[in-house]
Design a protein that fits this description.
Layout lengths: L4 H27 L6 H9 L5 E2 H8 L3 H13 L3 E4 L9 E4 L1 H25 L1 H21 L1
Antiparallel strand pairs: 1-3, 2-3
Helix pairs in contact: 2-4, 3-4, 5-6
Organism: Nocardia uniformis
Protein name: MarR family transcriptional regulator
InterPro entries: HTH_MarR-typ (IPR000835), MarR/SlyA-like (IPR039422), WH-like_DNA-bd_sf (IPR036388), WH_DNA-bd_sf (IPR036390)
Length: about 150
């Protein structure tokens, strides 16, 4: 029995909603021992390699600019991030991770590594790579049609 385009779309969406909840629950569990939340980890992760403006973080993470601004302000207040001047835009400061922020993310790494290994063991490395590629392709396709 062939499923309609609408059924396929609905299945993908509902499964993505469930996955989002599952990943957020895992992220909260992983982040808690480091003294941060999943949302804080998400924003720190976005600026791990380079400072970005709040709007850039929001685009990369698929969340609202206002949510990122609130979290960035908290991270700065806690000393896990800092605001820096943005040479490309006078008013939109860059969010940069501090050494304390790097330390928090590093504290997550051992459990993050274990969870990744458990999931990869469950699915197999090749299947895990296929799934990651398919999710990336799905996200890009949604970006393309928006």
């Amino acid at each position: 029995m062939s499923r309609s385009e609408q059924e396929l779309f609905s299945t993908a969406a509902i499964t993505s909603f469930k996955l989002n909840g599952q990943f957020l629950a895992i992220a909260e569990e992983l982040a808690r021992p480091a003294g941060i939340t999943a949302a804080w980890w998400q924003v720190l992760g976005a600026v791990l390699h380079e400072p970005l403006p709040v709007a850039g973080i929001a685009r990369a993470m698929g969340i609202t600019r206002q949510s990122v601004q609130r979290i960035a302000d908290l991270l700065v207040e806690k000393g896990l991030a800092e605001y820096r001047p943005n040479p490309a835009h006078r008013r939109a400061k860059l969010v940069a991770i501090t050494e304390a922020g790097h330390d928090a993310v590093r504290r997550i790494d051992p459990q993050h590594t274990k969870m990744a290994a458990r999931l990869t063991a469950e699915l197999g490395r090749e299947r895990m790579a296929e799934i990651a590629d398919a999710l990336t392709t799905l996200s890009a396709a949604l970006d393309a049609i928006e």
